[in-house]
Amino acid sequence: MYNYIIFDIDGTILDTEIAVLSSLQKLLNEELNKNFSFEELRFALGIPGEVTLNKLGITNLLESNEKWNKYLKEYFHHVKIFDDIKDTLDRLKEMGISTGIVTSKTKEEFINDFVPFELINYFNLVVCADDTEKHKPNPEPILKFIELSGADKSKTIYIGDTKYDMDCAFSAGIDFALALWGAKSSIGINANYILENPKQILELTKA
Question: Which residues belong to the signal peptide in this entry (predicted)?
Answer without folding.
Answer: none
